[in-house]
Amino acid sequence: MPSLPAPAGQPLGVRLLPAWAAYDYEYWKGRLVNPDPLLGSVAVALHRLPLLAIPASTDRRGGSMDMAAPVFVEALVCALRGRLGFDRLTASDHVVRWGERLPEGLTPDAHRRFHGLRKKPRLGTCIRPPAGHGERDLDAGR
Predict the structure, then answer these.
(1) Which end of the chain is more exposed for a tag (fewer CB within 10 A), N or C?
(2) What's the pTM?
(3) pLDDT tens digit string along 91-123?
């Protein structure tokens, strides 16, 4: 079987896509107490893997996304700036945060409530979040 040529390198940058295009859309849909913030969510694509960025809302006080490199942090801040629910954007090292600042010393249950997440996912526990989300460690406190 002949091998395919390697694709040309993609330019560095962040692309925003519709929320449903995110690789982890179903995971977060099953975890949110109130799915309404999904209406304002966007898929953040670095190269070929889009991950969901969920805005802050009444039930979700803030959010964050780990980025592969600092160059992507600034690109994501620029892409999200001005979008409803992505206010108070901050960037540090490899992480972009929005909404209220996460208080220190929260219990796992309080951490889950801060992000507007259910104690038990609607879809069961078989779906795990991919790496790249600050919320990926929330299951540890269950």
Answers:
(1) N
(2) 0.78
(3) 988 899 999 998 999 999 999 999 999 987 765
Top-confidence residue, 46 or 66: 66
Taking the CA atoms of residue 29, residue 34, residue 39 and residue 43 in that order, the dihedral angle to the nearest 10 degrees is: -40
**Other CB atoms closer than 10 Å to residue 12's CB: what's the count?**
12
SS3 string, the chain, reads CCCCCCCCCCCCCEEEEEHHHCCCHHHHHHHECCCHHHHHCEEEEECCEEEEECCCCCCCCEEEEECCCHHHHHHHHHHHCCCCCCCCCEEECCEEEEECCCCCCCCHHHHHHHCCECCCCCCCCCCCCCCCEHHHHHHHHC
Question: Each residue of 71-91: b (16+ CB within 10 Å) or e?
Answer: ebbebbbebbeebebbeebee
